[in-house]
Recover the amino acids of this structure.
């Protein structure tokens, strides 16, 4: 390039040399036999400049290109951290670094080391992540001897978080291709990189960004392993929230919704509160998006159940899976949150509630809370709308505390309150019957197994059970019993129940027939006390044919009593 005129004042300008003047200086020093210092920060620039200046072996043996290639293979690519540094410098020297395959060599070196068995990792790495108790420093063996803890599987994650998204994508793709690492480790690496590049994603504040951030979110979504559970559902929902706010595109959003739908049972209510994008809807939260995710989960859960059972099972008889029960609980919590929004349409509320089947809710307290919240925030609802809303609940599945609240809830329709009251009284009566019967059977078995009659304390115990279970007044309509050949008819009222007769004296043996008669008397008296419905048919005495009718009363407030 220098003319042969002999003019020493001429200046040569090389504008397109890779690495600029510093790289050219390294090449010039090498030509004059001066000491040249190469490291991970300047070796790529020097290699590209030497290629530009055609410093090959054809010109002179041991030229700079050869020397640098030897240095890269014997030192740089053998070092974990130097390989990462060199990869970071290749972007400034494109397309030279790409054409010389320097980028591919760096990526292969990093991916190979990340995929190495942890027992063979002998180089230094950065690891400030939260460790398990048995992964922190030295650990004690069972015999008390200290041993060096093995290298964690995600030892390589933190060192890669400083790379740009393009280089990171190439490394993760290469790691996946090798197939040596578990998918959850790769997912954890992507999660760590995302939080490093987008720290606002882990906070409550909204994510802000430009086209560069949108492109990063799309790339991260594409890098996620396809296997279920490779990343947490909470992280996926945060990505979906950010993608929705930044309008990253329909494909990105659908891919995230598909992944979330497969593991929705891991989500929490706060994760599902995805704000609506301005201008699209009037509701605070995007209910349609959550509805689509829930529907997808329900379909997948149904397919899994059919596959597990081998045949199609009726939803009314099929026991819900544990994951379905968890989703139902989360949906009820989400409904309670969206119910606070005055703009939430009742049809969307009902549709989302009905998406989860009723048998997936062992207890309807969460659904009752959501319905009550909706009634509170929407006082202008008509009677038919209130009835339709309350029909979502099964009053038989409300806890005692929820029933106590519901019967005093003025927002509920009267029909719903009556249903709650009826089922609560039915449940209480059934519990009393079971309790009284179990105590009576125990008393009867005790009398059969003993060699003597009951003592005074034992008879007092039987009387206490009768006093607890009997109603204040029991009507005997007809009585026709035959005992030891004698017939007796009776018609009248018996107050407090029949008192069992004591044996003549202590030490006298009791016949089984007498003990059995006492058991039945206690059990039947309890039955007469727990009949609750006004029109219930009379119950027939199992031994004597007595027809027992319930005694009831209604106080001034309209409460039903027995």
């Amino acid at each position: 390039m220098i003319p042969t005129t002999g003019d020493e004042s001429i200046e040569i300008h090389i504008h397109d040399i890779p690495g600029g003047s510093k790289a050219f200086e390294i090449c010039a020093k090498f030509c004059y036999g001066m000491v040249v210092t190469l490291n991970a920060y300047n070796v790529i620039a020097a290699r590209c400049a030497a290629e530009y200046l055609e410093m090959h072996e054809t010109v002179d043996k041991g030229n700079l290109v050869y020397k640098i290639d030897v240095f890269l293979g014997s030192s740089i690519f053998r070092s974990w951290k130097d390989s990462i540094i060199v990869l970071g410098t290749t972007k400034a020297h494109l397309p030279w670094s790409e054409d010389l395959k320097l980028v591919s060599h760096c990526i292969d070196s990093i991916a190979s080391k990340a995929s190495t068995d942890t027992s063979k990792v002998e180089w230094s790495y950065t690891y400030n992540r939260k460790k398990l108790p048995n992964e922190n420093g030295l650990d004690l063996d069972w015999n008390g001897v200290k041993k060096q803890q093995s290298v964690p599987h995600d030892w390589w994650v933190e060192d890669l978080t400083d790379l740009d998204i393009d280089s990171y994508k190439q490394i993760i793709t290469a790691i996946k291709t090798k197939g040596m690492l578990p998918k959850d480790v790769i997912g954890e690496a992507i999660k760590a990189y995302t939080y490093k590049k987008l720290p606002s994603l882990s906070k409550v504040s909204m994510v802000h960004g430009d086209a560069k951030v949108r492109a990063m979110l799309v790339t991260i979504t594409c890098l996620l392993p396809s296997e279920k559970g490779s990343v947490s559902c909470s992280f996926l929902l945060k990505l979906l929230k950010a993608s929705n706010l930044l309008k990253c595109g329909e494909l990105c959003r659908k891919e995230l919704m598909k992944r979330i739908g497969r593991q929705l049972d891991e989500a929490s209510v706060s994760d599902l509160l995805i704000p609506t994008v301005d201008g699209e809807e009037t509701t605070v939260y995007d209910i349609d998006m959550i509805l689509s995710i829930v529907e997808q989960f329900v379909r997948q859960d149904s397919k899994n159940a059919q596959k597990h059972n081998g045949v199609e099972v009726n939803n009314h008889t099929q026991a819900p899976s544990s994951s379905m029960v968890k989703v139902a609980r989360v949906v009820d919590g989400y409904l309670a949150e969206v119910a606070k929004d005055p703009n939430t349409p009742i049809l969307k509320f009902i549709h989302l509630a009905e998406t989860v089947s009723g048998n997936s809710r062992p207890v309807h307290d969460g659904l009752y809370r959501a319905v009550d919240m909706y009634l509170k925030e929407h006082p202008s609802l008509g009677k038919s709308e209130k009835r339709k809303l309350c029909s979502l609940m099964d009053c038989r599945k409300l806890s005692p505390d929820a029933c106590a609240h519901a019967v005093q809830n003025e927002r509920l329709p009267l029909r719903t309150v009556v249903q709650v009251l009826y089922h609560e009284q039915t449940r209480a009566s059934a519990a009393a019957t079971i309790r009284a019967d179990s105590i009576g059977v125990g008393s009867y078995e005790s009398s059969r197994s003993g060699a003597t009659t009951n003592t005074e304390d034992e008879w007092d115990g039987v009387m206490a059970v009768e006093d607890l279970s009997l109603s204040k007044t029991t009507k005997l309509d007809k009585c026709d019993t035959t005992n030891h050949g004698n017939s007796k008819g009776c018609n009248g009222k018996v107050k407090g129940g029949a008192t069992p007769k004591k044996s003549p004296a202590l030490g006298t043996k009791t016949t089984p027939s007498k003990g059995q008669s006492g058991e039945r008397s206690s059990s039947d008296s309890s039955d007469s006390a727990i009949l609750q419905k006004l029109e219930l048919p009379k119950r027939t005495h199992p031994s004597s044919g007595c027809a027992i009718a319930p005694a009831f009363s209604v106080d001034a407030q309209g409460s039903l009593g027995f």
